[in-house]
Amino acid sequence: MKSQNFYRECTGSPAENARIQIPIDDNTGVDQKEFEKANVELMRIGHMSRMAGASKTLPLIHYYQDGGQSWSGDVMQTCGRTIAAAGCCLCTFAMLERYLGGEDDPGAVNIKMGEAACPFVYAVAAEKYHFTISKSRYEVVSDDEAIDFIIGAIDSAYPVLVGMKRKDGKSDDDGSGTHFVAAYGYEGSTIFINDPAVRRDYKTLDRYLENYCVDRLYVYTD
Asked: Which helix (H) or strand (E) holds 137?
């Protein structure tokens, strides 16, 4: 069970890039009320699978990272930062885009997203790639809620774009205090991830949940 301090630690103003002071308005164009009933059912399914000790892995074979790649020095708009410095969400979306049958690597996604690349605007990505955002939560959730949501989506054969922010409010070395990963599998309560952060390259979500809380969950479908 979560401590009583969990929501106090993780709630507050929207995440903000501390270095350049650009508020993250990444949820523009998405009405969270549309997903409330579907989210409840998704989490119910996920909870049942988790309690049963089930497991499933999706073939998220394209593993993109922000550093050491041909696109790492590309500048994203409108924040004016490189993919290596602040492209974890863009790289995560690129992994999901390839899973759904697309052909774009992070460099190509950056070009196509234009001014919506950083902050990464989820609804713009759906429009440009002709996807549908089928499930979404844009709020701080407990670890158990996040895990149930992710498992429910994976049981439906879709990976999840997972956004997080630091519980202590401090900034990471990219100056933001936020991070994004692609969740593609689970075994019991363990969530397997593709981590775009080349400096960490964690394999399971629990490595992040020690210091981060989940505050964004997006499922794209084709």
From this structure: strand 132-137
* C-beta of residue 90 within 8 angstroms of C-beta of residue 76: yes
Is 24 contained in some domain? no
pTM assigned to the model: 0.87
CA distance 120 to 73: 17
Q: In CATH, what number is assigned to the domain containing residue 56?
A: 3.90.70
Q: Which residue has the tokens 């949820």?
A: 27
Sign of torsion, CA 185 190 192 195? positive
101 in helix, strand or coil? coil
| Contact between 184 and 159 (Cβ < 8 Å) | yes
Q: What is the residue whose two structure tokens read 């989210």?
A: 39
pLDDT one-digit tens code per residue, 9-39: 554 433 333 333 334 567 777 888 889 999 9
